[in-house]
Amino acid sequence: MGPIISKRQLETIEKYVQVGTSEGAHVAAGGARPADPSLGGGYYFQPTLLESVSAGMRVAQEEIFGPVLTVIPYDNEDQAVALANDSIYGLAGGVWASTPDRAMTVARRLRTDCPPRHRRDWPSRAARRGRRRRPG
User: Fold this and answer.
1) Same-domain status, 46 and 79
2) 3-class SS string, 79-90
3) Domain limits at 103?
4) I want to staple 43 with a disulfide (CB 3.0 to 4.6 A). Which of 4, 33, 71, 86 is the partner?
5) How far apart are CA 34 and CA 43, in angstroms?
């Protein structure tokens, strides 16, 4: 991972992790600036994994613009699609499945501007459809 664009953004990322933990998320990995002294002069943040996240938390609803991944468990495909669509944002999305046909079936249900399906084809023809959701 490379450096964060600015000190202000680094501090924003740190605040989001704090907000997430105060709302009940658990830091499974990362969650802080790296301890390596050679990185002390730059704006670095460890790749971070937040688990025990629910859909209503700020870290799930807002774009952090940093190396932070939130994990929201789901029980079935319908719940997964509902979780993915429960946001005002949706410029892009991604679907990975056991087969390309399965990925396309799910991707068609997402309210996003350009959902890549099972491969890295972003931006795709879907990007030219016009905005349906807000970018972050």
Assistant:
1) no
2) HHHHHHHCCCEC
3) 74-136
4) 4
5) 10
Report the b/e string of 52-81 with b at 16+ CB within 10 A. Answer: bbeeebebbeeebebbbebebeeeeeeebb
Q: Based on the domain organization, do 45 and 96 belong to the same domain?
A: no
Distance set, CA 67 to CA 3, 26, 48 (Å): 10, 16, 6
The residue ranking higher by pLDDT, 10 or 125, is 10
Helix (H, G, I), strand (E, B) or coil at 58: helix
62 and 94 fall within a common domain: no
pLDDT by residue (tens digit) across 37-54? 999 889 999 999 999 999
Q: Whole-number mean pLDDT of the chain?
A: 85
Q: Are residues 66 and 7 in the same domain?
A: yes
Q: Answer yes or no: do 17 and 80 share one domain.
A: no
Amino acid at 136: G
Write out pLDDT tens, residues 115-132: 555 555 444 444 444 445
